[in-house]
Amino acid sequence: MNLTIAWRNLWRHPRRTLVILLAVIVGVWAMVFYAAFIRGMMADMLRQGIANLTGHVQVQAPGFFENPVIDARIRDVATVRDALGSLLPEGARWTSRLRTGAVVRSPHGAYGVTLVGVDPAAEHGMSFLADSVTEGSGLANAPHGLLVGRALLVKLEARTGHRLVIDAQDASGQIVSRAFVITGVYRAQLETTEKQLIFCRRETLQRMLGVGGDVSEFSIVLPAAEESPAVARTLRERLPESAFRVLTWREMIPFVGAYLDSMTVYALIWNVIVFVAMAFGLVNSVLMAVFERVREFGLVRALGITPFGILGGVVLETACLLVVGAAGGSLLAAVTVETLGRTGIDFSAFSAGTEYFGLARIVYPEAAASDYALAAGTVFVLGLLVSLYPAVKAARITPVAAMAHV
Amino acid sequence: MPYRIASDSRPIRKDGGLVNEVQLAWRNLWRNRRRSLLSMGGIVFAAGILVFMLSLQVNQYQLMLRAAVASGTGYLQAQAEGYFDDGRIWLVIPDPASVETELRAEPRVSRTTVRSEGFSLLASEEHAQGALIVGVRPEGERAITNVPGTVRKGAYLDAGDFDQAVFGALLARNLGVGVGDRVTVLGTARDGSVAAAEIVVKGIFESGQPEFDRGVVYVPLEFFDEVFRMHGAVHRVIAQADSLWGIDATARRLTASLAGSGMKDHPPVVLTWRQLLPGVLEGIKLDMLIGGVMYVILVLVVAFSILNTFIMAVFERTREFGVMMAIGTTPWRLVRVLLLESGFLTLIGVVAGIALGSAVTAYFARLGLYFGQEAADYMAQYGMPPRLHPELSLATAVFGPAIVFAVTMLAAWFPAVRIRRMRPVEAIRVA
Amino acid sequence: MTELPAGRSGAGTPIVEVRDVSKTYAQGKVIVPALNSLSVTIAEGEFTALVGPSGSGKTTLLNLMGGLDLPDRGSILLAGRRLETLSAAEVTRLRLQHVGFVFQAYNLIPVLSAAENVEYVMLLQGVSRSERRSRARAVLEEVGLTGLEDRRPAEMSGGQQQRVAVARAIVSGPAIVLADEPTANLDSHTATELLQLMRGMNVRHGVTFVFATHDELVMRHAKRIVRLRDGAVVEDERCS
């Protein structure tokens, strides 16, 4: 009954209610969309970071992360293989790689790169590598094959089938050279990636550097990123610190982790700011509604409603307004996020800029349930809070004063 | 005979009396003080926040730009045509002196220096790594770039040094060397032959930007010249100008005047920092765009939020307007009065917002804003210090609030214009 | 009382001529026929009451006379000009120069003082500041409100507010003053005072007044009563 009255009261002045409702809808939409946008950007950064060979968890030799030299490599490969084979959850994938700094010598000059020896079959589903080969046959049947990034290819003025000589420091400290043939070209999110990473077969690199079966890193991709800390813990128990270092993605690309953490805080701050922007109008609207009805309030007080009842009524009305507004804004946001989440927001016009910040050229916003909850929650809780001001004013109206009011 | 009242000769009080619409509008504004104040509050809030945010952003951008440019790009650079795309060691400026003279003759250019570069393999006792060897003029570097200031261990190069070198911190660590250690250099010279030499670590710098700390070594220009057989040629002539902006024309002019000189098919071209670092400016534009969208949304929310005030102001006074029109007020006059009312409200709000925003900005300009260690590390990558100080300028203080003003007045326009279509009879009949 | 043929007044130049006017208007979904081929002429110096039950069309007739509305058929001559031929702006200007209005309520601008309300019309007419002020104060004295010039409407009684309205209506020497139920919200004593004031203006200065009313008091003061019913004149009598 109270609800019906509150609802009808709201629509006494349809135009006025609609205008403030519009403010709430736009506000809630802005809150959710901002969160979805940032989440999309961060999700992409995370995916990029992880796909960029990081994986969710890695096992390395101690000191390799700070200083990726060939000396810091995993010599006891078997132990790690056992551990991974038995301890990883269902659906996890892993592979091992050998990684070293190297110099590419071409007729045109010398360039510093990172040479990564991989197991091409295992890279499927692990990193961007398997799905990003645009030319050539990749590394599958080419022991001396090389997978080169497109940007580097352009820089070297090379083509598939060309020879490249690569120098690197082997296990004994000598510089060794080996000729490779470019058998594939890959494309990555960022040009810097394409210029930095060159891939060859792990066995070839192991032989070239004389490290036997040693590798630099084991990279693990889990079905869900959230499992990373738990998996890392289990692995650490099995693999002693003296010989192994287990890292989660958070430790390897801390910025992304930090940003995701602070996202909630930033989203909340933005939500509050947007709310304050609409709060002034909200309070005004409720005040107007209250003052228009002074005589009516006086009347119902004379009939026996308590001040608290009046206060409750005003708050209930505001609550109805906020619920409709939050629902409308959320709906609008859901539609926007759904559409833009599929097509993506194209920042290609700023491609040099996105490259500079290491961002994706196309952002796909994605909204989590918590985003909607935070937006609706902010608006609802704070909205009811500010509606107390006009509600208290309404509650203070005495029947006598009301009747004397024009 | 129309009735006429004789002018009265009694003395008139100086004050009192209706002057014009402005007076009417101003008084109308305060008819409902609480309502007007609340509406102003929204405007003050929006305007104030924009002042603060824009000041902060502008400061961030300026720092980013300055850091990017000071890391070695300079404001203008002369290079052999094609060097920017290919970076081949044999694409040189054979006569740097004449190019420097030409550049310095340009009034906007203040200082110049030169650099030569070649990628080489560096080998210490235990490790080897590729890095960029950069031959520099120490005094020139001190004047134009911020690199000398980032030396953390040892010292930066001086005029007399020959085979001394300053290493990036990560590079030094990867090679396992410290001040005083020797490192072998192996690269390709200008004529294609092998360039080999030994250098001594004189200093270690830390810029916070991994691409420099991991991949660059600075050596004296004379040393580079000899080892890489440059015969006096350089790769870059770097110039500092009086301002970051508006130097495109200058660059074009200089390119034209240098046209006939240098290498036969690769004369020197003069590039601006914008061409050399397209990412920075675009990145800033991108950030501005995203920020801009957010701000527009905020302003829209405020505008909708106080639209009600404007609507009610018209709605409540329909009868009054009817009477005014009956006694001869044109609809346009009424619209003017309403717009003046909204104008006063918005103007006061905007001015107060500017004042409040400026005060908050000034406070943080002194105190500085700190976003946490991880954020500081992230920002260091782009050359920004861990503490940010928002910088208040005329532009940042006025631009945001001006948008608030414009959008709010636009919102006020709609209810006001409806009066034009109002007919006195209908208005009075509302009674 | 002498009965006159409908539409003809006594001596004096005609100020408003209503010729064969019909008017309907819509109130929500209902179409109301307000006036039906009505003709009446108001001459200078009259003190006339348009009388009839609600719905008889008296307010509509008053509005048409003042150019606040246009008839569906027929024509209105105000100060010699045919209103149907004029643009909205011209009608507004005509009203400004030649017609004074007094309504039942909400006559005054709340944020202006009594004197400023009177000055407002002169402001619209472009009268100079000093002349505005002196004339306003003079006319307020005429209506007996000396000392209350700087009071706002909220600080005055109903009767005082109506007097200010009258003052504003006559300050520019209009050809005619149209009053729509001016006494409806007043007690009989105050109403009588107001009517006597207006009657005095009429007698001393020759101001023409037309009232739309169903108040007995007004009828008693009127010099001519035009009775309306269902949008047509049914009686038109002069009385003293």
Describe the overall structure.
The complex is a heterotrimer of chains A (406), B (431) and C (240). With 406 residues, chain A is α+β, with helices and mostly antiparallel strands. Chain A has helices at residues 2-10, 14-54, 77-87, 150-156, 191-196, 202-209, 228-238, 249-252, 254-292, 294-303, 307-343, 351-357, 369-395, 399-404; strands at 57-60, 93-106, 109-118, 133-136, 145-149, 163-169, 175-186, 197-201, 217-221, 245-248, 345-346, 362-363. In chain A, 55% of the residues lie in helices and 18% in strands. Chain A is elongated. The mean pLDDT of chain A is 85. In chain B, a hairpin with a 5-residue loop joins strand 6 (182-188) and strand 7 (194-205). In chain C, a hairpin with a 2-residue loop joins strand 10 and strand 11 (232-238). The longest helix of chain C is centred in the last third of the chain and has 18 residues, at 188-205. In chain C, the strands form 2 sheets. Chain C has a 7-stranded mixed sheet with strand order 1-11-10-4-9-8-7, sandwiched between helices. Mean pLDDT of chain C is 86; it is low at 1-10. Chains in contact: A-B, B-C. Chains A and B meet through helix 2, strand 2, strand 3, strand 6 and helix 9 of A and helix 2, strand 2, strand 3, strand 6 and helix 11 of B.
Task: State the helical fraction of chain A.
Answer: 40-55%
What is the overall shape of chain A?
elongated
N-end to C-end Cα span of chain A:
29 Å
What's the number of domains of chain A? 2
Indicate the low-confidence ranges of chain A by residue numbers.
Answer: none
Q: Based on CA inertia axes, which overall geometry of chain B fits?
A: elongated
Distance between the termini of chain B: 35 Å
**What is the mean pLDDT of chain B?**
85
Question: Key terms for this structure?
Answer:
heterotrimer; B: 431 residues; alpha+beta; 2 domains; six-stranded mixed beta barrel; two-stranded antiparallel sheet; 53% helix; disordered N terminus; C: Rossmann fold; seven-stranded mixed β-sheet; four-stranded antiparallel β-sheet; 7 helices; 34% helix
List the helices and strands and how they pair.
The complex is a heterotrimer of chains A (406), B (431) and C (240).
Chain A lengths: L1 H9 L3 H41 L2 E4 L16 H11 L5 E14 L2 E10 L14 E4 L8 E5 H7 L6 E7 L5 E12 L4 H6 E5 H8 L7 E5 L6 H11 L6 E4 H4 L1 H39 L1 H10 L3 H37 L1 E2 L4 H7 L4 E2 L5 H27 L3 H6 L2
Parallel strand pairs in A: 3-8, 5-7
Antiparallel strand pairs in A: 1-9, 1-10, 2-3, 2-6, 2-9, 4-7, 5-8, 6-7, 11-12
Chain B lengths: L20 H9 L3 H41 L2 E5 L2 H4 L9 H10 L3 E15 L4 E9 L1 H7 L6 E4 L9 E5 H7 L6 E7 L5 E12 L4 H6 E5 H7 L8 E6 L6 H10 L10 E5 H4 L1 H38 L2 H9 L4 H37 L1 E2 L2 H8 L6 E2 L5 H24 L6 H6 L2
Parallel strand pairs in B: 3-8, 5-7
Antiparallel strand pairs in B: 1-9, 1-10, 2-3, 2-6, 2-9, 4-7, 5-8, 6-7, 11-12
Helix pairs in contact in B: 1-13, 2-11, 2-13, 2-15, 11-15, 13-15
Chain C lengths: L1 E2 L10 E14 L2 E14 L3 E5 L6 H8 L7 E6 L2 E2 L5 H11 E4 L11 H12 L3 H14 L15 H13 L5 E5 L7 H18 L2 E6 L2 H6 L2 E6 L2 E7 L2
Parallel strand pairs in C: 4-9, 4-10, 7-8, 8-9
Antiparallel strand pairs in C: 1-11, 2-3, 2-5, 5-6, 10-11
